[in-house]
Amino acid sequence: MRIDGACACGAIKIEGEVDPETAQVCHCTDCQTGTGSAFRVSIPVSGASFRMTGEPAIFVKTTAESGNPRAQAFCPTCGSPIYSTSPGQGVQRSYMVRVGILRQRDQLIPRRQNWFRSAQSWVAGLSAIPKNEKQARN
Ligand SMILES: [Zn+2]
Ligand SMILES: [Zn+2]
Questions:
Q1: How far is the CA of 83 from the centre of ligand 1 (A)?
Q2: How far does the centroid of ligand 2 lie from the alpha carbon of residue 49, in Å?
Q3: pLDDT digits (tens, 9 = 90+) for 102-116
Q4: How far apart are CA 58 and CA 47, in angstroms?
Q5: pLDDT tens across 26-38, in order?
Q6: Does the predicted model carry a pTM greater than 0.90?
């Protein structure tokens, strides 16, 4: 299916083609730090279909667990995470695009959770935590 999206400020826009069955959650500690949240949701987009306008900032992070360097792309203005890929110039084989920036995010339901051993303990019981339909009055 076709996907498209933009960062929070609109400086970076992307589009491409995905298999919706490949959306996935990552609970690794790098993703927790890189999102400032409990986990990351991503979907692979082939380099052949990936299009982008705007210029992301790139931070190359060598993952402690796998030893593989990954180029983490984010908007230099608003900080939205955009994708990760292999480091290097030119078009890469695949881009792990961050589902939260996509217009179709409600249709991209994760089919797999990776690095679950470092998942935060409350994640599996999220539905049991009391909910507000809008912002809490703290
Ligand atoms: Zn932005
Ligand atoms: Zn991760």
A1: 13
A2: 23
A3: 999 999 999 999 999
A4: 17
A5: 999 999 999 999 9
A6: yes
